[in-house]
Design a protein that fits this description.
single chain; 364 residues; alpha/beta; 10-stranded mixed beta sheet; globular
Length: 364
């Protein structure tokens, strides 16, 4: 879900401001047993979009006495699959970044051991999961939504779409680019959003109409957003011609934050009736060698300090009640009021079949 390095790559490529993020601390000690004689290194396994401000992490290390080592392991799906394969001898102590589209796979395969984190009672009830067994905690949330190029719609005197239904209207023919649902997290989220909206029996008919209306499918977010979407900074450089793209509700704030000079208004907007809500979780890995350090790190993820640090580092929203978001988020990327959602168990039961059916319908 989180897009830090995607936006960072864009910013670096354009010579724009960059964002302070850190990877790991000391690599001198491997993650070893807990207790007074154990290692003081705790290892976090994550996808490639993990990021935290250096001073925030340093404060946790000073307070806890643990040094944090971060192992980034590809995109979310790849990282989860590898963690499952290595669960008997895990690479670390805590896993961060399994989202609601993959959660049941991780739980069913025994990836996590129970731990009731300090501060869990402050998590917004909408994002809670596995409350009976306490194997994971929600850490952040975000919305996958269609973004639109404001300039295009203004120049063409056309109202931007606001809903899934709008996207299949003739007025928006050949305007939308999305990601492959079998290879991309936002692509899968968009597919799940349509399944939630139109139901088990209606989503395929919807996609048939979307295909007939000229939707373009590319492999991943980077290509869709930075090469095909006319509203992004990268898309403008690439002379992109698609003014609609499946991205995130946090994309418009990123377009402002990384611009130099900063515009007074975001150049892109969000079709809030097309949003699907993702939630990312963390958990203490089964057979973690430094379980005590892992528990301390999980507690840290729920602190107000970390929760308020996340938005400008990982472009996601906090899940802890009372945590504030930056002004840019509130102004340019508010969360959808009524996003599509789906029970992780239903996703687990249908995900593979839906992706297979989607591939046959849309790509062939």
């Amino acid at each position: 879900m989180s897009t830090t390095k995607k936006y960072l790559a864009l910013a670096v490529g354009l010579g724009l401001v960059t964002l302070s993020a850190c990877g790991s601390s000391s690599d001198d000690e491997s993650s070893g047993g807990s207790g007074s004689g154990g290692s003081k290194t705790v290892t976090l396994v994550s996808h490639d979009s993990w990021a935290v401000s250096k001073n925030v992490l340093a404060a946790f290390e000073k307070q806890s006495g643990y040094q944090v080592k971060v192992l980034e392991d590809g995109d979310a799906g790849q990282a989860v699959n590898k963690a499952i394969l290595t669960k008997d001898n895990p690479q670390g102590d805590v896993f961060f970044g399994v989202d609601n589209t993959l959660l049941s796979r991780a739980l069913d395969n025994g990836l996590f051991q129970p731990y009731e984190a300090k501060g869990a009672d402050k998590i917004d009830a909408r994002y809670q999961a596995d409350q009976d067994e306490h194997r994971v905690i929600p850490v952040d949330t975000g919305d996958i939504c269609v973004n639109y190029d404001k300039a295009y719609f203004s120049e063409h005197k056309l109202a931007p779409p606001t809903s899934f239904d709008d996207l299949i209207k003739p007025a928006y023919k050949n305007l939308l680019v999305t990601e492959n649902a079998s290879t991309s997290s936002p692509g899968l989220g968009f597919l799940l959003g349509t399944a939630a909206k139109y139901g088990d029996d209606g989503w395929q008919d919807y996609w048939g109409k979307l295909k007939a209306n000229g939707v373009k499918v590319v492999d991943g977010w980077e290509q869709a957003y930075n090469e095909e979407f006319s509203g992004s900074a990268g898309g403008k450089q690439a002379k992109a011609d698609r003014p609609l793209v499946v991205s995130y509700a946090s994309s418009p704030p990123a377009e402002v934050i990384y611009a130099d000079p900063k515009p007074t208004a975001a150049p892109t907007g969000v079709a809030t009736g097309t949003c699907f809500r993702q939630v990312e979780y963390a958990g203490l890995l089964s057979n973690a060698k430094n379980a005590e350090g892992g528990k301390a790190l999980i507690d840290f993820l729920l602190t107000k300090t970390f929760q308020e640090d996340m938005p400008l580092n990982m472009f996601v929203y906090p899940v802890v009640d009372g945590a504030q978001v930056p002004e840019e988020f509130a102004k340019y990327g508010p969360q959808a009021e009524e996003p599509e959602t789906m029970d992780p168990a239903k996703i687990a039961d249908n995900r593979d079949d839906w992706v297979k059916s989607w591939t046959s319908l849309v790509l062939k």
